[in-house]
Structure formats: C-alpha cells, structure tokens
Amino acid sequence: MSDAPGILTHAAVMTGRSLRISRRNIDAVITSMMLPVMLMLIFVYFFGGAIDTGTAYDSYVMYVVPGVLLLCAGFGSATTAVAVSEDMKGGIIDRFRSLDVGGTPVLAGHVAASTVRNLVSTTLVFGVALLIGFRPAASLGGWIAALGVLLAYIVALSWISAAIGLLARTPEAAGGFTFFMSFLPYPSSAFVPVDSMPGWLHGFADHQPVTPAIEALRGLLLAQPVGNAPWVALAWAAGILTVAVGLSGALFKVRTA
C-alpha cells in the first residue's frame, strides 16, 4: 500500500508524457479523430438511403451513430499499441526502469492518454452527428449510463492495445494487429441489424463484445428498451480489461527481462 502514491504519481507523469507525444504526432491524432467522422458521413449520406434497418427510427443517422461511437473507440485505442511498441523499441523503458518507474505506471499512462484522446474524438463525432440530424432523447440517467458503457469500452480497448503493443516487435506490426479491433463493429449491429446478415454470421455478430455495447448505447441514447444489454456490455468490458491488464503485466516482464 505504501507504494500506491508513488505509482499514481508516476502514472500521472507518464500520462502527461503520452499527451505531449500526441501533440507532436498531430497527424496521427487528426487521422484517428477524422476517420470515424468520415465513415459516419459516408454511411449516412452515401448508403443511408439504401439501407432499411427494419426499425422505427425515422432516419438512418439515428440508427448508425451509436455504432460509430464504438468504431471511434477502436480507432482511437489503436494508437496506444503503436505508442507502446515505439517505447519498447526505442529503449526509453530502460531509462524509466533506472529511475524506478515500473511497468504499471508506464502502461497506465498510455491508457489514460488514450482515454483522453478518445473522449475528445468521441465529442467531435457526437457534435457532427448532432449537426447532421442525430437527436438523442436520453434522460439524465440514460446519459450517465451511456457514458459509463462507452468509457468502460474505451479503457478496456486501450489496455488490450497496450498488450498488443508489447506483443508486437515493431510499431508497424502493432498498428496491423489493432486492425481487428477496428473491424469488430462491422460484423455487429452497428450499421445494419444482425438479422439482415447471412445466417452463418448471426452467431458471431450476436455474441461478440461490440454488439451489446452498441445496443446499450442505442437504447440509452434514444430512450428505447435496453433489456440486459448494458450489463452484458459491462461484463464484456470487465472481462477484456481483466485479461488485458494481466497479459500486459506478464508481457512487460518478459520484454524487459
């Protein structure tokens, strides 16, 4: 317990460092922020008129925005894997260890910085969504619950990205590995209902971690029935986070042995 204040202080310093690095890597930050916005505009204006969601939503933008918010979290967390891999490759970790900075503060700093970047990106996406016709109807409790689900996924995806950054041997490989996380919203209910997909895909689309999060966000933001979707979504996020934290700790020890 006596080490807790030191770990928190180191983590805060590492968070500030990661955010300063992001400011110098402005092109990557802009890309991770603008890509979800561009995809949302493409789906709404290019494909929206041809997609029948089979729901009561009066416009496609009302259906698609919750999925884009999860897509945004995936894109934003991908930069964490690259940043961790660059640290491992550049030798800076050895300097941190000589200053008695452990692996937990270093990784927590990357995750906290990723969370900040994701929240900024999510705010941008949400602002554009409001401009193009998204009209949420959530109560105060609904807003709080939706933010909780989204934040849980941002943190969980950022930690698993940190683990991928430790696993990959180069930053380029780290960026490639995170493509899978960015791909997950597509075989889900993000852009079309699962029932409209081929039958062989239903099992995966219904039981992968992104679908309950999207259904929870959609129901909470639009004041629609959500059933147990928020709890399933949080259970997935907690499971991913637990595995990611344990895996990243073990990988950090192996990579710095």
UniProtKB/TrEMBL annotation:
One Pfam family this sequence matches: ABC2_membrane
Membrane topology listed for this record: Multi-pass membrane protein
Presence of keyword Transmembrane helix: yes
Every ABC transmembrane type-2 domain range: 27-255
Transmembrane segments: 26-48, 60-85, 106-134, 140-167, 174-194, 231-252
Keywords, alphabetical: Antibiotic resistance, Cell membrane, Membrane, Transmembrane, Transmembrane helix, Transport
The keyword Transmembrane helix belongs to this UniProt entry's keyword annotation: yes
Origin superkingdom: Bacteria
Localization (cell): Cell membrane; Membrane
InterPro entries membership: ABC2_TM, ABC2_TM_bact-type, ABC_2_transport, Nod_factor_ABC_transporter
PANTHER family associated with the record: NODULATION PROTEIN J
UniProt family annotation: Belongs to the ABC-2 integral membrane protein family.
Name listed for the protein in its UniProt record: Transport permease protein
